[in-house]
Amino acid sequence: MLKIIGAGFGRTGTLSLKTALNELGFPCYHMEELFKHPEHLPYWDTASRGQPTDWDKLFENYTATVDWPGARFWRELSERYPDAKVVLSVRSPQSWYRSASETIFTVGRTFPVSVVARLLPPMNRMMPIVERIVHATFDHRLEDEAHCVAVFERHIEEVRRVIPAERLLVYEVKQGWGPLCAFLGVPVPSTPFPNVNDTADFKRRILGMKVVSWVVLLTPVALLALLAWALSG
Question: How many domains does the chain have?
Fold first, then answer.
């Protein structure tokens, strides 16, 4: 059963927050879990279509969720789990957009998705869900900074309006353990607060995927060219 619902958009320190919650003893769902567990795709597919989904089954091994796709359904989840606390991760809207536009918004533009789908067949089913959950949040206007920032700011205002103050923590990961642990009522760990998945790390992973995808794409072409050259002699 969920005890913590992350309402913040991706690129607001959600992977650092996930890592911190895991360390505090709250197994946490995050977009990367969907890549690890393609069997979860049907749940998100039905949710993204506005149809009922079995949240209890989906989150049976987790007590927290942050990042997309869960953040898209913060309202539904907060109603389904009325005793869960809500953490709204935030950052400067302009720095958020800069980070998102250089990372998650580039997926599908920086390397051939069709090739990645051949490497990772679940991507065939995942990309439409990402489109309906993430891209649709911004009306598919990912390159319109003013529009995306306005959506980001409206989202924060809406969460703050709907969730009672005593149930909500508006949180920047740079604040570290203190506010988070106080809100959750748990001791502060002796270890430093996690700092993972910054923009540079994400770009390195995207570059690696891009190189692999182009190698897969071009290898058959290269082999055909080599065969033609050999036969021409």
Answer: 1
